[in-house]
Design goal:
By secondary structure, the protein is mainly α. 82% of the residues lie in helices and 0% in strands. The protein has one domain. It contains 3 helices and no strands. The protein is elongated, with a radius of gyration of 15 Å. The termini are far apart.
Length: 90
């Protein structure tokens, strides 16, 4: 997730930067706000990646449970921001 040529966080860092630059170019507060949310999303994906490493090293279920909780939050955040972007682009 972090070292596979995705720019980190499964392309979320790249998408965050794209939204920010696009928002600045066209003066879109919606895109700039979405870029801020993608910053948080990217950080959460980094946390999941770190937990996957710990899972592999320790096989400790607590890290699986932590990753699961973050993945649920990520699904909710990503769905919400994509819905907001859909409305902003209409």
């Amino acid at each position: 997730m972090e070292k596979g040529g995705t720019g980190g966080s499964l392309f979320r860092n790249i998408y965050r930067d794209f939204l920010k630059e696009s928002g600045e170019l066209i003066d879109s507060k919606e895109l700039i706000e979405a870029s801020k949310e993608y910053n948080t999303i990217a950080e959460l994906w980094k946390n999941v990646s770190d937990l996957f490493i710990k899972i592999g090293e320790t096989e400790d279920i607590k890290y699986v449970n932590q990753a699961s909780e973050i993945l649920i939050e990520l699904s909710e955040r990503e769905k919400k921001v994509m819905e907001e972007l859909k409305v902003a682009s209409a």
